[in-house]
Amino acid sequence: MANEKQNILKSLLPPALIILLLWLIKLGEIITQTDLHHLGIYPLKLEGLTGIITAPLVHGDIKHLSANSVPLFVLAACLLYFYREIAIKTAIIIYIITGICVWVGGRESWHIGASGVVYGLAGFLFFSGIFRRDSRLLAITMLVTFLYGGLVWGVFPDFFPEENISYESHFWGLVTGSILAFYFRREGPKKKKYLWEIEEEIDEQQRLIQEKNNSNSVLINYVEPDSEHH
Fold first, then answer.
1. 2-183 maps to CATH 1.20.1540.10
2. Cα 178 from chain centroid (whole Å)
3. pLDDT digits 0-9 by tens, 149-192
4. How many CA atoms lie within 13 A of 197 on its CB side?
5. Other Cβ atoms closer than 10 A to 103
6. Residue-range domain boundaries for the chain
7. What is the dihedral of CA 81, 82, 83, 87, to 10 degrees?
8. pTM: predicted TM-score of the whole model, two decimal places
9. How far, CA to CA in Å, does 42 sit from each of 35, 108, 126, 171, 224?
């Protein structure tokens, strides 16, 4: 029980600290009356290249940051709790690859915000449960669908034609997370086996051993008469 509480705490604390950092950055912007949009990604411009690292830390306004904070916290906590062994490298790859893809193929504008990371985490958690065929992880797939299924519309510009949204970040985050779900499908948490499944495996192994023994017995009975003849 103590270990479980510790695991939950370890899963909640890092996302909470990240969200706190994002709000401190926004608060600093407001207090100093500065605009950090230049820390975003500007596709195919050298000055926008550093945004691959800094863009997810900067948000346009309080509404923008609020919209990203809750899903980022929930999805990151789920990643850390259920995929502890591969969580850090998965998050880093989503963070970097999404940024690179936006820099290479985004519209000529400043792209800021953590929504690309949010979409990446959602894509990973959704498809990982499907690829692994694990009932526990499929439950997370269903949870992501229930809570954030509407995110999928954020990759289609036609649904929000007048919104200042980085659809490219959403799209590439979702694609990156989905690919990683397939790539890491054999790493991380192992599928839990129930007692009846273990018993079935034991029965199958015993059956194979018995068949092998019977086969050897038949072979010996066939060869022995031939050996006596010689």
1. yes
2. 7
3. 677 766 776 666 656 788 899 999 999 999 999 999 988 776 65
4. 4
5. 22
6. 2-183, 195-230
7. -30
8. 0.78
9. 15, 6, 29, 17, 82
